[in-house]
Please model this.
Amino acid sequence: MHRFLTAPFLFWIVMFLEMTGLKSSAAHAQPAPAVHGDYTGSLGALRVQLHIRVANDGALSATLDSPNQGATGIPVTEVRIEGSALTFKVPAVNGSWKGSIENNGEMLAGTWSQGTPAPLTFTRDSFQAAARPSAIDGFWLGTLAAPAGPLRIQITLKSDGAGQEFCTLDSLDQSSGGLACTNIAYSGRDLSFDIPLVNGHWAGKLSEDGNALSGNWTQGDTFPLNFAREQQALTVPARPPPKFDAALAPVDAAGMQAVLDRDLEQALKSGALAPQTSNGVTIGVLQKGVRRVFAYGTAKRDSIFEIGSVTKTFTGLVLAQMIEQGRVRLDEPVRELLPANTVAKPVGGEILLLDLVTQHSGLPRMPDNFKPADLKNPYVDYHAADLYQFVAHHGVERPADAQFLYSNLGVGLLGQALANRAGLPYAQLLAREITTPLGLKDTVISLTPEQRTRFIPGHSADHREAHAWDLDALAGAGAIRSTADDLITYLEAQLHPEKLSVGGSSSARTLPKAIALSHELRNEAGPGMHIAFTWLHEDATGNYWHNGATGGYSSFVFFNPDADCAVVVLVNQTLGPQGSLADLIGHHIGQRLAGKPAISLGN
Model:
């Protein structure tokens, strides 16, 4: 239920989605009752859901979901109907859709465009409501006494003909709608559910009169959250689209700090990096051999951060190293790297190392036996025995039609499997294959006493100090801590593996070829996006990228071989109402490097 990466939706979503209220809708006052409702469609390998709502005054609002990747409530803007034509935009991914309303709104036939047009037809959701609704079905409204101020929370519950409950949550005051519920349990008068995208859990009871739900919300800490039944749902308020600063002539690495000093001025005074937030950011920029590292807020140039899912790119490179060394094969079943008799060989095709490193294994995002005792440090008590227990129960058969599905479990399993084959703990394997050959002295899992003095405290979205995350069996998915200096060195090696010294250890000798291997695009990750060895590749720009988030940190890195540039952004705050600050700054820098209008950092 916890995520390190802001999972890619329709090829390039890195700012607006993750653990807290990041979703919004947009309205345009044009009556369109024929298209009011929920629709589903497929964009390549991705299932896409469209939710269109019509207010009493005729104003249209909409959101998109990508259920395969756990992305819900993506903001849709400029929803317009002219006759039978329908158009809308999705700013978070620079995408748009246009098509026609057919069969009295039962079908929306059209084309999705984000560089390369792709057919995308929606059909009305075929959900069949139960003939007799359950006692909890309906709309419920409550107020959460959050540390940053009260938040109105709305949940919608509905059951189908088979008696299965479905649920979504809206955080109205954060313009965040349609967050999907999972693990819905309703028995007697007891109800509980999880909201994976915000690492949240609610549990409580239905009142005897059926008009109240009384319980608690847990998201790190536990808060009372009671709901009252409402006759109709409230509309999720629209969030204004992001603002952009005017384009400048392309800024080079040497001039980037001076530009950011100005672009971040307001944020440092009263925004995301203001003194009262305790936030800090360390930035690394590399362009054509010119390297700069600088810091703002509470961070220093040598501050150490948790890097979350950027760890996955290291795990991918460890795999490439072991392939070049002849220790594993890309087409080798993961079953063969697990302890003997862990899991039976399936009758059909089975999960290969290739499937794990390209997020096409069919494994879920997280194992179903992941039940942390401490949500402030959720991975610390998930051990190898727990992982093997899940694998034994789930099996290792690969679905014939396995699609891209971002999975912490999958890459965590890969890291554990490679450690098994090497006969070393993951941390030692990482040091042997990557950090020692590259001289990355501050890229570690366990900190030395000296490094602890530079480990900048992490913070929650509402600026409270957050507990560090310690990972065991799933270390390969997100356990690494590092500095911007080290990560720029790491990205420099990605840009120019041919310049690496091949003397010394056998790992150093295979590293150039391993890096080149790890960049080979192996599968689709949605139209316009491919995946290499965990690196996501945006086809239109040539950027290889990854990002991450833990309970108190967020990170964003990208490199572009054609432009010979790379960027690292590390922030000591997890994702918040405006998404990932690390992603936001990273995009801004990329736009400044390219001489394009840059998303504003002012607020």
